[in-house]
Design goal:
This protein is mainly alpha-helical and 197 residues long. The protein has one domain. The chain has six helices and two strands. It has a two-stranded antiparallel ribbon. The chain is elongated and about 55 Å long. The protein starts with 9 loop residues before the first helix and ends with a helix. The C terminus is likely disordered.
Length: 197
C-alpha cells in the first residue's frame, strides 16, 4: 500500500491516475466556459464547479499524501537533471492545484453567486460581492490552470522520453505497486562469483 524507497504504492498510484483524469476533465470544462453566454455559460460554470467540489477530497488527498510521503528516490537508471526537473515540476503542479482549489469557490462568491452543487443543493456565499476581488481571483485561477496545462504536457513529454529513449522503468513505477530497483545511491549488489569467494 505504501511507497517504497524507489517505487509507489497502491495509494499513490490510485491518487495519481484519479487526479490525472479529473485534471483533464476539469481543464476541458473550464476552457469551454469562455466561449459561452447566457444559460449555456451558467450551466457550464455549474458543471465545472460541481465536478471540482466533488473532486476536492481526491485532490486534497493527493496533495497531502505527496507532501507527507515525499517522492521515492530515483532508481539506478534515473539520475541527473531530468529526474530533478520532473520532481520539482510535480511539486509546482501540486501548488497550482492548491491555488485552483482555493480560488475557484472564492471567485464565484466574490462575483456574488451562490455555488450550485449540480441540482442537489446550494452553498450560499459567506463573503460580500466584490467585482475587483473577483477579477483578481479570476486571473489567478486562469493563470494557475494554464500552468497546470503546460506542466501536464511537460509531464507527458517526460514520460515519453523515459519510456521510448531511456527505458528506465519510470512509467512502470506508476503502474506496478512497490516496483523495486536499486536506488541510485546504493552500493551495487555483489556478483555470484564474489559471493562465493
Amino acid at each position: 500500500m505504501n511507497d517504497t524507497p524507489t517505487g509507489y504504492g497502491w495509494i499513490s498510484i490510485g491518487l495519481h491516475w484519479l487526479t490525472a483524469v479529473l485534471i483533464v476533465y476539469l481543464l476541458y470544462l473550464g476552457s469551454s466556459i469562455g466561449g459561452l453566454e447566457g444559460d449555456a455559460r451558467t450551466i457550464a460554470v455549474r458543471r465545472h464547479t460541481s465536478v471540482a467540489l466533488a473532486s476536492y477530497l481526491i485532490l486534497v488527498g493527493r496533495i497531502v499524501w505527496r507532501i507527507y510521503r515525499g517522492h521515492p528516490g530515483p532508481t539506478a537508471d534515473q539520475r541527473g537533471w531530468a529526474h530533478s526537473l520532473g520532481k520539482y515540476t510535480h511539486y509546482a503542479m501540486l501548488v497550482a492545484l492548491t491555488v485552483l482549489i482555493v480560488t475557484g469557490p472564492l471567485m464565484q462568491w466574490s462575483y456574488g453567486r451562490d455555488i450550485e452543487f449540480f441540482d442537489w443543493f446550494v452553498i450560499p456565499s459567506p463573503i460580500e460581492a466584490s467585482f475587483r476581488f473577483a477579477s483578481v481571483l479570476h486571473r489567478v485561477h486562469a493563470t494557475s490552470a494554464l500552468f497546470v496545462f503546460f506542466a501536464f504536457l511537460l509531464h507527458i513529454g517526460g514520460v515519453y522520453k523515459h519510456t521510448a529513449f531511456n527505458q528506465d522503468g519510470t512509467l512502470a513505477k506508476m503502474i506496478v505497486p512497490g516496483r523495486q530497483s536499486t536506488p541510485s545511491n546504493a552500493a551495487p549488489l555483489p556478483s555470484k562469483n564474489e559471493g562465493e569467494s
